[in-house]
Amino acid sequence: MFVALLLLLASALPASGVAADQSCEQCLGGAPDAPIKIEVFSDFQCPACRELYMDTMKLVLRDYCSLDKVCVIYHEFPLQGHPYSREAARYSLAAQKLGRLQWTAVVDSLYANQAVWSDKGTVQAAVARALSPDDFQKVLKLIQDPSINGTIERDIALGQKRDVQSTPTFFITALGREQKVVGGLPYNVLKEFFDRIVK
Amino acid sequence: MAVALRILHWACRIVLGGIFLYSGYFKLQSPLQFAAAIAGYKLVPNSFIMPLADYLPWVEIALGALLLSGWKIRYVSIGASALLLAFIAILTVTYIRGIDADCGCFGFGDKISPRTIARDVLILLPAIFLAAEERLKNSATNYTNRTK
Asked: What is the mean pLDDT of each run of 10 residues along chain B (148 residues)?
């Protein structure tokens, strides 16, 4: 019985789950080959996603991604009950095509002003506030690109494949092991976990 | 009477041991998810969250294995009861504080509610039985001797 128990426990320790696409076009921060990878499935209109981004991921981007210790990948997972989240996701992906700096600025603005645009649907105003007039004009053109909707659909399909049922859900891969986390996690807790792997 | 108690003893050990093993195994699969659940209680300082998430599943697995093995069953059952009482207290306090937190007990998305608290109380019963079994047996023997 104890041998069976040990085998069962051993099976709990290694990685489980589906490894995601390793390309890093959706890498919000850090190098793709960083020792720790976080893949977030997020909805711009979800308050818990806002909390995760503002209170945790922004600090991860600042303290770990800037040193290429952690790679943060954001996947769009707009939920059906949120009427403006797909539009926000489209703007975010259009900004992503301009570069990481513009993309981060748009993501920042969308989450920081979530309460305002979620209420009135003024997504475009939140995006305009984050970009230079030139970049904003480019985003307005890029958002017409049908491939953006394709990327959102691909992200949703990837999330469904990985059994994402609510947002935020994120997957942390480190030391060959993947852990799924549903909901938020305080930055200090995540920091303690990271510091064991990358000082 | 003795046979019934013996059957009850084994049933309690198997059920309780199985529950602890499953619970520990499940938490080991994602200590970070368990850490998120502990953080959700807003009761434990941040610096204790990761150590708790790392070690508590092993404590549960050890208790489960010991309950099944039968070694020092009274003391192990007292330990299991103490752990379950702590869980019940934490869940109750979190629920009373009106915090919408995940139980993190056997699966995620299982919000703390009177149902989750009642479930833990139900699990506590076999642990208390095993811890108090000797006393129950002695009382039963004394009662039988008196009535003879």
From this structure: 87 97 93 92 91 95 96 95 97 95 84 95 96 80 74
Q: What is the ipTM of this complex?
A: 0.76
Q: What does the pLDDT look like over A145-180, one tens digit per residue? A: 999 999 999 999 999 999 999 999 999 999 999 999
Q: Is B10 a member of any domain?
A: no
Which chain A residues are within 8 Å of B101, Cβ to Cβ?
none
Q: Does the CB of A7 have a partner CB in chain B at under 8 Å?
A: no
- Structural domains in chain A, sorted by start: 27-197 (3.40.30.10)
Q: Shortest Cα distance from B29 to chain A (angstroms)?
A: 5
Which chain B residue is nearest to residue A52, measuring alpha carbons? B36
How far apart CA A66 and CA A69 sit, in angstroms, is 8
What is the value of pTM for the model shown? 0.82
Whether chain B has a CB inside 8 Å of the CB on A168: the answer is no
B142 to chain A, minimum CA–CA distance in Å? 37
Q: What is the CA radius of gyration of chain B?
A: 17
Query: Does B12 reside within a domain?
Result: no
DSSP string covering A96-155: HHH-HHHHHHHHHHHHHTHHHHHHH--HHHHHHHHS-HHHHHHHHHHTT-THHHHHHHHH
Number of domains in chain B: 1
Q: Measured between CA atoms, how close is B136 to chain A, in angstroms?
A: 30
